[in-house]
Amino acid sequence: MTGRASVLASRDGDQFHYHWAARRCLELLPGGSDLVAVTIEGPSASEGATIEAGEEIIDVGFYFGAEDRKTARQVDYTQLKHSTVHAADPWTGSGLKGTLEGFAKRYRDLVAELSADDVAARFRFRFTTNRPIQGEVLESLADLASGGAPRHPAIHTLLLGYVGGDAAESSRFLALFSAEGGEGDLWVQRNLLTQDVRAYLPDSDFDAPVQLKELVTRKATTEFAANPSIRRNDVLRALGATEDDLAPAPNMIAEPDKELAREQEAAILGQLLAATSPLIIHAEGGVGKSVLATRLSRAMPDGSVAVLYDCYGNGLYRMSLNARHRPRDALVQIANELAAQGLCHPLIPSNGSDAKAYMRAFVYRLSQAATVLRARTPDASLCLIIDAADNAQMAAEDLSEPRSFVQELIRAPLPAGVRLAFTCRTHRQVKLAPPPEAVAVELKPFSRSETAAHLRGV
Fold it and tell me: What CATH code is assigned to 265-457?
């Protein structure tokens, strides 16, 4: 290989690392796991007292639960190797020399500080490459990890020499080590990064993958030598958002001093769980629609989930700073409440996306959530309860906007298992623009017995 070709291949390797790591940084977003930091070119500066052994081969570190190695639920150290010219050539045992030597030294230092059992429970060491790994090498690593008879004595001895230490210690270390070949090359990683980022946004954004990769690239320079960690806020900034953008319209329904179970409650809950078309729960003011909506959201049977969305916002719904009627507010809020439960991808708002893009992305997340729920419980329901839906449309009209998200959602084709309920005042049902198949249910004023029960409870 000529000097220039060698330099270009090396650059390919760097870019492979950055794109691969950028994809994994998306796991820092809500709903993925308890991953709190991804480090680039070394361990976290917050890990604790310095352990220098093996840090030069940590291309990417993953910290779950915490960055302090004494309190983290899990710490994964990964070395990445990419080849452009020899992509099809199997990786041999001799190629693992530096990897095994470095990781084994770090393992021994960790055991000296923590304990063999603690390290075994919480630490992992990984080698990942786009090249295939020789089958005999993988079998020898498995034999060393299990303490079994060597199927390939020469490779067995070679690898054991790289690890050092006695057989028992080597076995304990190699039980935590994995070698993974056949990873997609640079061009695959670049395409996958674009696809992966797209899954978190309402619409295509050609700049977002570039910005996320640039974040990783900068973390690999001396600029961030003292702080190689990438955290959730860093990823959000790269995608043009903040933590607050993920929850733009939180529930502000006030909790009453004493909730009264309504006589209709059980029947309405049954209607909601069996609904195949939108349910419109209507009544005049003061009859308890919001309290009923809250109680319904808490009354889901095992396996089912409800999200209650508050369109009224404690009376702030008509203020532009508290807008709740737009798809980028309402649909983002609902989707991210589902994402926080691990049911779907988060929905990260984007300034360039229109209502159609938000609705399309939202329905996709409903499909994800319903699929997850029904995989656990076949007859589970995903219920969306939209309280004060008429106020959302009124806010849209005040701003000369033709539609609120309510009029879009109530007519949207939804995945199986998704139920919709809207509350509104009786004379404003028309503002929801319901389809002909929508079912209207009147919440009746308090009966004599309900009133008596309320008075006795005061």
Answer: 3.40.50.300
